[in-house]
């Protein structure tokens, strides 16, 4: 059996084992180790590669950005900034058709800029926004669909854990990836907002009969709104301004953001000893799970390099005559399909190491490739049967009469909008590269 055949067999086995429920890190370590041993016939070499992957997988200082951004997101969530952002957005947009739904999107976009975790956004705004949307006449499916759909902005608008993951796998600048996500993130936000306006004005059977929001008229003043939004604005300007100007690296921005979020939470008196311990514990659990996956992905990349699978696939695609368009079509199709059954991190770790050499062979800029990859992966958060954002919304709902079928149905318009923005970002590189180059 040739090395390429062994590599392809192991990739198929990897997907099968993950689908059967084996932990992704365990599957990556075991199959990559076995693959190197089989291809080189040297158990000692495979053992050395295993040790090297565990060390070199997390030795770079850039890996410290992961726990720092996770810590910042946890402090922001516990500080109650999500509710503050939504209250202000709802008050500002109270006279716009579908304004309350647009407020959820806007609040998610701002919240994304200080958390970078989609699941956190889905959990926070399910509790904060869904009751208000239902109270003002939004149908249950649109109420939960708006929260689940707009939660994906957490992984597109910087900072983003998926951009950090892609940057490590592709050996690209995480700071540049963050900046590259700004325009696609704003485009997605605008597209979601326009979609909500169309749904509440043209498709009332789906959206429900929206009640006036006169009760919000006196819920805020410009002074109270400014006080609520100021801490978030300071964090966003500090981090993104520092990254864009080159004052901070991505890791330093994470440290500054985590410190700023901690201070805000203390000033707002949302932290006590028990809460701080909970934040640190959750940060540790999330960070360790990501970092061990990165060690496993490092060994997986070495196994793929030995097998020659990426080069073989690239040669096959180029010989098939599909060219760049054919590659984009197949890549997006595979990632979106895997998103129906695997989580975002698993997809990145399985697919990206295979496809990076192929994308480079087609002359695709890695920054653009990262943006397209993150959008494609995020679609999987909204599609059955896995749909992590949908399940998060369901588990966070106070109204248990809203079923998972309604959540997925409510997500469909947002999946379609994401698909349109995804195709635009694949077809127009400048959308991703405008602020970077």
Write the layout of secondary structure elements.
Elements: H1 3-19, H2 24-40, H3 43-56, H4 65-78, H5 81-92, H6 99-112, H7 118-135, H8 140-150, H9 161-170, H10 174-180, H11 182-202, H12 204-207, H13 222-245, H14 250-267, H15 273-307, H16 309-320, H17 323-339, H18 344-361, H19 366-379, H20 388-396, H21 404-427, H22 430-433
Helix pairs in contact: 1-2, 1-15, 2-3, 2-15, 3-15, 4-14, 4-15, 5-6, 5-13, 6-7, 6-8, 6-11, 7-8, 7-20, 8-20, 8-21, 9-18, 9-19, 11-21, 13-14, 15-18, 16-18, 17-18, 17-19, 18-19, 19-21, 20-21
- Report the radius of gyration as a whole number of Å: 22 Å
Our count of domains comes out at 1
Percent of residues in beta strands:
under 5%
- General shape: globular
Number of helices: 22
Report the end-to-end length measured between terminal Cα atoms: 45 Å
Task: Work out the helicity level.
Answer: over 70%
Strand count: 0
């Amino acid at each position: 059996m040739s090395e390429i055949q062994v590599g392809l067999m192991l990739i198929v086995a990897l997907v099968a084992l993950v689908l059967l429920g084996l932990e992704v890190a365990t599957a990556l370590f075991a199959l990559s180790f076995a693959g190197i041993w089989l291809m080189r016939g040297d158990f000692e070499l495979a053992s050395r590669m295993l040790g090297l992957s565990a060390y070199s997988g997390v030795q770079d200082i850039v890996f410290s950005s992961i726990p720092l951004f996770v810590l910042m997101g946890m402090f922001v969530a516990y500080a109650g900034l999500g509710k503050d952002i939504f209250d202000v957005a709802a008050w500002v947009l109270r006279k716009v058709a579908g304004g309350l739904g647009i407020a959820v999107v806007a609040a998610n976009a701002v919240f994304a800029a200080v958390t970078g975790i989609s699941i956190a956004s889905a959990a926070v705004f399910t509790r904060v926004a869904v009751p208000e949307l239902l109270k003002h006449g939004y149908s249950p499916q649109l109420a939960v669909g708006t929260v689940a759909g707009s939660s994906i902005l957490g992984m597109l608008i910087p900072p983003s854990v998926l951009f950090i993951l892609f940057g490590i796998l592709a050996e690209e600048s995480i700071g540049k990836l963050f900046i590259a996500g700004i325009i696609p993130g704003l485009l997605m936000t605008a597209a979601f907002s326009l979609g909500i306006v169309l749904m509440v004005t043209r498709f009332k059977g789906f959206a429900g009969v929206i009640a006036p929001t006169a009760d919000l008229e006196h819920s805020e003043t410009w002074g109270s709104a400014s006080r609520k939004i100021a801490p978030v604005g300071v964090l966003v300007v500090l981090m993104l301004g520092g990254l864009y100007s080159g004052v901070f690296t991505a890791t330093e921005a994470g440290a500054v953001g985590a410190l700023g979020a901690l201070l805000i939470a203390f000033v707002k008196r949302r932290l006590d000893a028990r809460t701080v311990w909970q934040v640190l514990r959750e940060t540790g659990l999330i960070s360790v799970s990501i970092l061990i996956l990165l060690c496993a992905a490092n060994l997986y990349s070495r196994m793929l390099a030995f097998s020659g699978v990426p080069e073989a696939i690239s040669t096959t695609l180029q010989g098939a005559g599909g060219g760049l368009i054919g590659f984009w079509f197949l890549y997006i199709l595979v990632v979106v399909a895997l998103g129906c059954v695997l989580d975002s991190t698993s997809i990145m770790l399985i697919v990206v190491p295979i496809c990076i050499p192929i994308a480079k062979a087609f002359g695709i800029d890695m920054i653009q490739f990262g943006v397209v990859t993150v959008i494609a992966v995020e679609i999987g958060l909204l599609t059955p049967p896995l749909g992590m954002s949908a399940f998060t919304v369901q588990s966070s709902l106070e109204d248990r009469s809203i079923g998972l079928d309604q959540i997925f149905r409510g997500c469909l318009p947002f999946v379609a909008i994401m698909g349109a923005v995804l195709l635009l970002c694949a077809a127009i590189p400048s959308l991703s590269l405008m602020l970077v180059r």
